[in-house]
TrEMBL record:
The gene is Ripor3. Residues 2-277 form the FAM65 N-terminal domain. It comes from the Eukaryota. Belongs to the RIPOR family. This is RIPR3 protein. InterPro entries: FAM65_N, RIPOR3.
């Protein structure tokens, strides 16, 4: 292989408990998802470039003011502006490094994916040919290469997840028109992989809503979708209103995303959330 396992992992320089926690359970089944990783990578790179463009525009604006104030302004204001410029420049350098690291990981991932596909095709070809000692030895070697590539892809997926940032999810309330009445109580349960958020709310007499929590931070996951479950609380009984899933691929953007999810099949009750990446 042109890129060995040791070289892949040494270039990542990440601590196993954080980057590879999914591999620490002793799981025997390796199941990389190249198509999903490609979608997340493209969304992530687009979002990072949006942040880079926004901060570059801010830097250009501050630099213009910096030139104007150098000639005719107070010295304290000039130095404060200079401090802001240096701060934005540092952040831009961090963004550029972040983008280059993500691209490097995805490039290594694609190499391993191609090597894995090649091993699969060769295994198929050997299995169709007459069985000989040489062909059996080749099949054993190909299987070993396939397993190593699969393992590398899973390690790189774990390393890429470290660079996905955070989702700040805000509860904006339920919308139900005639379905929501004063005194009604609801429980909303949001799950992303192993991360959970359970909150309870009540419809007040003035139709406003109060919730015991308003915001939760989720760590993005390459393969998991948001699962949202809403139940109505009636004394000791609970009535399921609906369960939906929501893909997070559109959340990698600089602007807060307002989300309205149909909880019931007919859309009579909707859940409003806001996600900031």
């Amino acid at each position: 292989k042109s890129l060995s396992r040791s070289s892949v992992r040494s270039r990542m320089s990440l601590k196993p408990p954080k980057a590879y926690n999914s591999l620490q359970k002793g799981a025997l089944i390796w199941d990389p998802k190249p198509l999903q990783v490609k979608k997340i990578f493209e969304a992530l790179k687009k979002g990072l470039n949006e942040y880079l463009e926004a901060h570059q525009a801010e830097l250009d604006y501050l630099s213009g003011r910096h030139k104007d104030t150098k000639r005719n302004s107070r010295l304290a204001f000039y130095y404060d502006l200079d401090k802001q410029i240096r701060s934005v420049e540092r952040y831009i350098r961090k963004l550029e490094f972040h983008i280059s690291k993500v691209e490097e990981l995805y490039e290594a991932y694609c190499i391993q994916c191609r090597l894995r596909d090649g091993a699969t095709n060769m295994k198929r070809a050997f299995s169709l040919s007459p069985s000989t000692k040489a062909s059996r030895e080749s099949l054993v070697e190909l299987y070993k290469n396939f397993q190593e590539c699969t393992e590398d892809m899973c390690f790189i997926e774990g390393a890429l997840e470290v660079h996905l940032g955070e989702f700040h999810v805000k509860m904006k309330g339920l919308v139900g028109f005639a379905r929501l009445c004063p005194g009604d109580q609801y429980e909303v349960f949001v799950r992303l992989g192993r991360q959970k958020w359970r909150l309870k709310g009540k419809i007040e007499t003035d139709d406003s809503q109060t919730w015991d929590e308003e915001e939760k931070i989720f760590i993005p996951n390459l393969h998991e979708k948001f699962e949202i479950k809403v139940t109505e609380l009636r004394g000791l009984a609970t009535i399921l209103v609906g369960v939906v899933t929501c893909d997070s691929i559109n959340f990698f953007t600089t602007k807060p995303q307002a989300i309205v999810v149909d909880i019931t099949e007919l859309g009579t009750i909707k859940l409003q959330l806001e996600v900031l990446w």
